[in-house]
Structure formats: structure tokens, C-alpha cells
Design a protein that fits this description.
By secondary structure, the chain is of the alpha/beta class. It contains eight helices and 13 strands. It is globular.
């Protein structure tokens, strides 16, 4: 199996990063001379993924002007009212049931995290893989509960700290995209707009889909939600 497509969601307001994101969207914050989105796009291309879509919303024109013309831009007009689950849902026609890399636009990570877990996923037969940091988690993080074999039981910020195995990074490999969009649609239409993508992943796991949680191998990465996270990113990635 090959994966030639990727979707990066980068539509949100990022109000927790004000005033940094008052003038530009979070994905364009620079770290070491490159924006978060430029870094992820470069890593995807190094791994043979050229067909890349970015879901945009807040200050979408700035992202479209900053990135090159080969990127497909998918507007999310409801970015003020939905979460990343809704943003990926808008990419369903771009994906067209093909296997994809799916990732959040507000993360920065060592290139080896991606290259090693990506190659491992291609050799496996799981429906989905969530790249997971097993060394840390806190109240704010998107935590995971897993089986002894590292398969997802559920993922949520509400998982008690003593029940969590780690934190999902926001990097995901999807083999069964048809099922993913089926569950994403179910959540959006039956349960509401303002859910995280992990809501659908948890429901898929409960219904028997194989969602493997692979390791970051203790290599550096961070999600940027707050100003302290941004300062940490700049110290980790010069």
C-alpha cells in the first residue's frame, strides 16, 4: 500500500495564543525560520507525499499566500463553530476514500517521528494509527487509553490521568478513510459540531476497528496551544 495524500487541518481561531495569533493564524507562527505548516509540508514531501491539502478558515488568505501553489486549499466556513473533526470532514471529496496522512497544523516534531512511524504503518494492516507520546500527559492533553497490545480503547481530554497511557500527538495515518468519514459524519449530524476528531476515533475503536497507537520513541515534539508551548517549541527546534 502507498499513501500519496495528506490533509493538514489549520482552520481554527487559536484564541488561547492571543496576542500572537491576532495578526496571523497559528500555523504560520515561525520556529527556526520556518512556519509550522511549512515544516510539516516539507516533512511530508521528504516522505514521498506530494498531494497535500490544508483546511483553512481563520485568516485563510494569509495561509494561501504564504504556502506554494501546489497545495490544495479547502475552506471550512464554519471554523468558528466546529472543531478539527469538522475541518477534516470538509476534506472528504479531496480524500475520495484513499488512504491518507492526517495531521493537525499546530504541531512541531522531529522528522524521525514521522518517517519511522509512517514506514511502520505501511507494513501493518491496521485501519488507523495514532502517533502517541507515552512519556507524558496532563489535564489539557488529548490522552489515550490502550490495550496491552497498544490498540486504542478511547481518546479524550477527560480520561483520568491515572487511566491514560500517553498523549496523541495529532499525527495520524488512515488506511480506511471511508469508515473514518462515515463516523465523522455520524458525530457531526447526530451529536453536534463541536467535537474533537478523537470522538469519532473512540467510537470506531468501540465498534472493533483496529486503531494502533505507535510511539514517538521519546523524540522531541510539542503541540502549540499556549504561549509557553510556543516558547518551548523555539527552544526545542532552533
Amino acid at each position: 500500500m502507498e499513501i500519496k495524500k495528506a490533509v493538514i487541518v489549520a482552520a481554527g481561531l487559536s484564541s488561547r495564543l492571543y496576542p500572537l495569533t491576532l495578526e496571523r493564524p497559528k500555523g504560520l507562527l515561525p520556529v527556526g525560520g520556518k512556519s509550522l505548516l511549512e515544516r510539516s509540508i516539507g516533512i511530508l514531501r521528504k516522505n514521498g507525499i506530494e498531494d497535500i491539502a490544508v483546511v483553512v478558515g481563520y485568516k485563510k488568505e494569509m495561509i494561501m499566500e504564504a504556502l506554494d501553489s501546489s497545495i490544495t486549499y479547502i475552506p471550512n466556513p464554519f471554523y468558528k463553530h466546529c472543531n478539527n473533526l469538522g475541518s477534516l470532514w470538509f476534506a472528504r471529496n479531496f480524500v475520495h476514500n484513499d488512504p491518507i496522512v492526517y495531521m493537525h497544523g499546530d504541531i512541531i516534531y522531529d522528522e524521525k517521528i514521522f518517517s519511522q512511524t509512517f514506514q511502520s504503518f505501511l507494513k501493518r494492516k491496521d485501519d488507523i494509527e495514532l502517533v502517541t507520546d507515552f512519556t507524558r500527559h496532563d489535564e489539557e492533553s488529548m490522552k489515550v487509553r490502550i490495550t496491552k497490545e497498544n490498540y486504542l480503547i478511547e481518546s479524550s481530554k477527560e480520561i483520568p490521568l491515572d487511566k491514560a497511557a500517553g498523549e496523541w500527538t495529532g499525527i495520524t495515518y488512515i488506511r480506511n478513510s471511508e469508515a473514518v468519514f462515515k463516523y465523522f459524519s455520524k458525530v457531526l449530524f447526530e451529536e453536534g459540531l463541536n467535537h474533537y476528531d478523537t470522538k469519532a476515533f473512540s467510537e470506531m475503536a468501540a465498534d472493533g476497528y483496529k486503531i494502533y497507537c505507535s510511539s514517538t520513541m521519546e523524540l522531541p515534539w510539542t503541540e502549540i496551544d499556549f504561549i509557553d508551548d510556543y516558547e518551548k517549541a523555539k527552544s526545542l527546534f532552533l
